[in-house]
């Protein structure tokens, strides 16, 4: 009797165990609210664009945006019922919330990427943000601009401060879009930079540098040191100040080279690029924008998001870093 | 890696004039010849050119093809290999972007520098078809648009897609489209759209969420499509039948089912169903939306969870190889990964594999019983991004 009871109990236990820890379904699940956190706090919801398959249902400026599934979306009703986006969350807070499972999708900064986290799935776009130095109109001597371009040690910044995220570049557009970004010089030549600076008057050897994003301050500090090696005196000023040169980031909005180049040129106040019928003409148009060193491209960086274990499907973002919530669903997995 | 050439020839002018500035080349050879013409013009009469090559692209064979074409084009104009004091130093890089392959030449002559770029369009190679063992799979159709199901009426092949149903007929070894009937749903299709074709001779039914088409493939393709909430007929092998209501605007059956004997039941919502014979009795297996596979008796009364690690897609066959019927199932892997299919039988509610798993180049998006011993599997090929329909047959080992 007892042995039969034991066998029966074992069977029940096995069934219960299987019931508790059975495999998750592999077809997408409908329903649920995806909780997203971002650092930005855009002044209006239009900045987001509307994620495919959703409509904006709540907007609390500076705090929160909620998108709800559109039952009549042209591409079909998405799996998720809602996407709840918390705005103005620091990268650290986002990371903590992901760990505590208060958030499902967060941005990952360099510090967060370095820290391994169980159950976190990183999603990365192609390099879609251009980090560059952009000169203001006061710096009229091209030798100053070229000297700074030659002084910046992109390799050291890339390996140490950026933890090899993204790509070193001397081009406005990334290699994956054009295929010829490597042609633009991105190497350091301190001797040549020093020779250029030596030919300048003392007043031209000082520059003020502003950093638009405080998260890039360490990169600005390194550029300041690089400049000193070339005998240029760079002082870092507040982001709100009118500076000789600014360390900025701009987004590449399109995978189409002509559209992307026109957009980047507009963002940096450069001339409209010449129309191009083929890659060689496209290259010449980009080359013309960079002649004169008004803009010094430094890096092309990806957007990186982390997704919690409930998030299935994906990717969370596409190659251009745009959200793709329509392909996600939520599922509790053991 | 360095090829050096020297010399000059009268045909250079003709070659230069034949070069089109705006058009892409047709292939690596054409792109290489375009660069060679420009190099010859840059080097000048009697010049020597030293060329280094590198490859930043995902291509392998095209690099050597381009290099050979480049060197032959230089030789055509009378330049020959030399090993010292080049007039022009050129670095040619094979590169790529999303739509094109590029040959980028950076040429230097003293302080003069030139960059030339020639390109040709990308085309992705077709996917290979790996072989199976006891499961025999056959690729029957590929297309860029999503495939929901395929079926084979006497007139040829029917392909059900989100936007249409198309009849193809054989012309030698090729399938040719004979007629397409567009589908116009009242509401946009849901994500993870599913659809199923049922054949009865030349007649067919196309079952979609909230829509049904009744049609015929003879004398030509015709169909009457209308909004419908009627139950779908789910077949399993040659004998198992189940009527199941499909949840409108979703990707699962809502749990309202009718057995072959006419009994109506309410069960947990499920993605797919298969019947299997075991110990002389018929059982139904339902792959439920919570990931579990539940086992039911012939009256659709639950008997417990099956001890399996399957995904959401299962289908039944009853190839007469040894004992009874089989359940073909995908494994419980993430949807973005490559999938496989394996035949099982059930003993004491535990799955026992009958065959080796047969692999697919992407996730299985649809799996329907298509005959007594075969199923149709639709796969999204992760490499080519094409949708591929396979007929997978259970083949007796001997």
What share of residues of chain A is helical?
Answer: 25-40%
Low-confidence stretches of chain B: 1-21, 124-133
Query: How does the major sheet of chain A shape up?
Result: 11 strands, mixed
CATH architectural label of the largest domain in chain B: 6 Propeller
How are the strands ordered across the major sheet of chain B? 1-2-3-4-5
Question: What labels describe this entry?
Answer:
heterodimer; A: 334 residues; alpha/beta; D-Maltodextrin-Binding Protein, domain 2; Dipeptide-binding Protein, domain 3; 2 domains; 11-stranded mixed sheet; two-stranded antiparallel ribbon; 10 helices; elongated; disordered N terminus; B: 398 residues; mainly beta; Rossmann fold; Neuraminidase; 5-stranded mixed sheet; 5-stranded antiparallel sheet; 3 helices; 10% helix; 49% strand
What does this structure look like?
The complex is a heterodimer of chains A (334) and B (398). With 334 residues, chain A is of the alpha/beta class. Chain A has 2 domains: 13-120 and 308-330, D-Maltodextrin-Binding Protein, domain 2, CATH 3.40.190.10; 127-302, Dipeptide-binding Protein, domain 3. Helices cover 30% and strands 24% of the residues of chain A. Chain A is built from 10 helices and 13 strands. Chain A has helices at residues 2-21, 91-99, 110-114, 142-151, 154-161, 175-178, 190-198, 217-229, 257-267, 279-290; strands at residues 33-37, 54-60, 64-69, 82-86, 105-107, 121-135, 167-168, 206-211, 233-237, 245-251, 295-307, 311-313, 328-330. In chain A, the strands form 2 sheets. In chain A, strands 1, 2, 3, 4, 5, 6, 7, 8, 9, 10 and 11 form an 11-stranded mixed beta sheet that branches. Chain A starts with a helix and ends with a strand. Chain B has 398 residues and is mainly beta. Chain B folds into 2 domains: 3-121, Rossmann fold; 135-394, Neuraminidase (6 Propeller), CATH 2.120.10. A 5-stranded mixed beta sheet of chain B has the order 1-2-3-4-5, with helices on one face. In chain B, a hairpin with a 4-residue loop joins strand 20 (281-288) and strand 21. The interface between A and B is large, with 45 and 53 residues.
């Amino acid at each position: 009797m007892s042995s039969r009871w034991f066998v029966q109990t074992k069977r029940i236990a096995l069934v219960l165990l299987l019931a508790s820890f059975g495999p998750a379904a592999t077809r997408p699940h409908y329903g649920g609210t995806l909780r997203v956190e971002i650092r930005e706090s855009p002044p209006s919801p239009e900045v987001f664009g509307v994620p495919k398959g959703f409509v904006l249902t709540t907007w609390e400026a500076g705090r929160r945006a909620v998108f709800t599934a559109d039952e009549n979306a042209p591409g079909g009703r998405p799996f998720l019922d809602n996407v709840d986006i918390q705005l103005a969350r620091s990268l650290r807070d986002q990371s903590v919330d992901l760990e505590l499972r208060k958030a499902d999708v967060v941005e990952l900064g360099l510090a967060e990427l370095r820290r391994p986290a169980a159950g976190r799935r990183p999603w990365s776009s192609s390099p879609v943000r251009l980090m560059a130095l952009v000169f203001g109109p006061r710096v009229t001597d091209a030798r100053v601009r070229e000297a700074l371009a030659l002084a910046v040690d992109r390799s050291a910044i890339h390996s140490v401060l950026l933890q090899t995220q993204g790509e070193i570049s001397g081009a406005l557009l990334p290699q994956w879009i054009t295929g010829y970004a490597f042609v633009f010089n991105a190497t350091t030549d301190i001797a040549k930079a020093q020779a250029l600076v030596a030919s300048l008057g003392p007043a031209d050897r000082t520059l003020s540098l502003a950093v638009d994003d405080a998260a890039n301050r360490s990169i600005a500090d390194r550029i300041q040191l690089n400049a000193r090696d070339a005998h240029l005196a760079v002082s870092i000023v507040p982001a709100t100040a009118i500076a000789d040169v600014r360390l900025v980031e701009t987004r590449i909005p399109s995978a189409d080279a002509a559209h992307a180049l026109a957009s980047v040129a507009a963002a940096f106040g450069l001339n409209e690029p010449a129309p191009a019928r083929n890659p060689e003409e496209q290259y010449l148009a980009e080359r013309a924008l960079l002649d004169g060193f008004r803009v010094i491209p430094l890096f092309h960086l990806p957007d990186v998001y982390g997704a919690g274990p409930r998030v299935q499907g994906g990717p969370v973002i596409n190659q251009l870093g745009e959200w793709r919530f329509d392909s996600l669903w939520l599922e509790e997995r053991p | 890696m360095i090829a050096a050439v020297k010399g000059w020839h009268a045909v250079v002018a003709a070659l230069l004039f034949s070069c089109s500035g705006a058009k892409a080349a047709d292939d690596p050879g054409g792109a290489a010849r375009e660069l060679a013409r420009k190099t010859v013009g840059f080097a000048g009469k009697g010049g020597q050119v030293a060329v280094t090559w590198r490859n930043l692209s995902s291509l392998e064979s095209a690099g050597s093809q381009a290099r050979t074409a480049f060197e032959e084009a230089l030789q055509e104009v009378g330049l020959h290999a030399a090993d010292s004091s080049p007039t022009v130093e050129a670095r040619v890089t094979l590169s790529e972007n999303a739509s094109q392959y590029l040959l980028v030449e950076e040429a230097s002559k003293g302080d003069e520098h030139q960059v030339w770029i020639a390109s040709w369009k990308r085309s992705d190679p077709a996917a290979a078809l790996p072989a199976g063992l006891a499961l025999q799979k056959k690729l029957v159709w590929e297309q860029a648009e999503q495939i929901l199901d395929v079926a084979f009426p006497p007139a040829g092949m029917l392909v059900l897609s989100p936007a249409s149903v198309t009849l193809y007929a054989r012309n030698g070894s090729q399938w040719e489209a004979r007629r397409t009937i567009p589908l116009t749903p009242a509401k946009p299709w849901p994500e993870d759209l599913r659809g199923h074709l049922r054949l009865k001779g030349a007649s067919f039914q196309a079952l979609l969420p909230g829509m049904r088409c009744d049609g015929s493939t003879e004398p030509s393709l015709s169909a009457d499509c209308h909004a419908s909430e009627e139950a779908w007929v789910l077949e399993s092998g040659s004998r198992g039948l189940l009527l199941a209501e499909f949840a409108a605007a979703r990707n699962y059956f809502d749990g309202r089912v009718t057995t072959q004997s006419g009994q109506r039941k309410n069960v947990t919502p499920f993605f797919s169903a298969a019947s299997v014979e075991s110990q002389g009795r018929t059982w139904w297996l339902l792959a439920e939306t919570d990931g579990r596979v539940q086992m039911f008796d012939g009256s659709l009364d639950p008997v417990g969870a099956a001890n399996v690690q399957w995904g959401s897609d299962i289908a039944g066959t009853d190839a007469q190889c040894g004992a009874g019927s089989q359940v073909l199932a995908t494994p419980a892997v993430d949807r973005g990964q490559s999938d496989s299919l394996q035949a099982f039988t059930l003993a004491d509610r535990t799955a026992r594999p009958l065959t080796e798993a047969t692999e697919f180049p992407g996730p299985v998006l649809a799996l329907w019983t298509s005959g007594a011993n075969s199923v149709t599997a639709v796969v999204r090929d992760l490499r080519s991004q094409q949708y591929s329909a396979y007929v997978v047959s259970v083949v007796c080992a001997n």
